[in-house]
Amino acid sequence: MTMDVMNPIVERILYNIEKVMIGKRNVAQLSLVALLAEGHVLLEDVPGVGKTMMVRALAKSVGANFKRIQFTPDLLPSDVTGVSIYNPKEMEFQFIPGPLMANIILADEINRTSPKTQSALLEAMEEASVTIDGVTHRLEKPFFVMATQNPTDYEGTYPLPEAQLDRFLLKLRMGYPDQEEEIEVLNRVQQKPPIEDVKPVISIQELRNLQNQIKHVHVDKTMKRYIVEMANQTRNHENVYMGVSPRGSIALMKAAQAYAFMCGRDYVLPDDIQLLVPAVFAHRIILKSEAKFAGILTEDLLSDMIENVAVPVQRVM
Length: 317
Prior knowledge:
Layout: H1 8-17, H2 25-36, E1 41-44, H3 51-61, E2 66-70, H4 77-81, E3 82-87, E4 92-97, E5 104-108, H5 115-118, H6 120-127, E6 129-132, E7 135-138, E8 144-149, H7 162-165, E9 170-172, H8 179-189, H9 204-214, H10 221-235, E10 240-242, H11 246-262, H12 270-281, E11 286-287, H13 289-293, H14 298-308
Parallel strand pairs: 1-8, 1-9, 2-5, 5-8
Antiparallel strand pairs: 3-4, 6-7, 10-11
């Protein structure tokens, strides 16, 4: 994943992240796509490859109010959202905010907690609010959740329900570094953790302004039809039990707008959509049992779909 003409603000953020993350520029770019598109990211990989460090570097780069929630089997929903406690002096209930009340949330090892606690994130991720004892509390924008999870076949993990997965704009994997990159990791952490040297390069208000600008990136009607045709392919494929919902189509459009902006354009191209389809659609698709037994992978299925859907001709803006 490369960008020919990088927006200078975006380049500053990515350069900052790369002080900590070596060889993960693609993951950093896509994580920034989600942040700018006001979506959320699910990072799935084995422990120790830098998932937590990625979100910490991103949060520090934008000067955001950052909170980390370590998901464990005994974590309760109120431990995430907050709780109302009766104050006898004031003779009324007072809301004690939970760690969810921040700009950037690291939901660490989200699949190690129960589905009941996982669902505590649903309203926050979709509506940017939480409801406690019938009272709705709005979350300050920007609100961005980056959740990490270990592969679901690991012992002590709970698969995320489909409704929860659908709230994530993108699902990404870190992967192991190559040998030279890993040597550089050792060099950088030998003296002190490089995360300590990461300083904000933009303010929260500047981030809000960028998010607002992205909403005005032009999406031609031919691009919208292209997105819908991609989604429709997943709903009618012989190997798919459940395809992409309209929420997935919306997610792909918003992600494409953010990516186009990062590339220095004010319009979306078919290439933007094609590049983002795997990260936006893969976790929203459920294959039929027989397809799984046959060894068919969702990523391969999406690659075939991209090849089969006619590419529209984009008029130059």
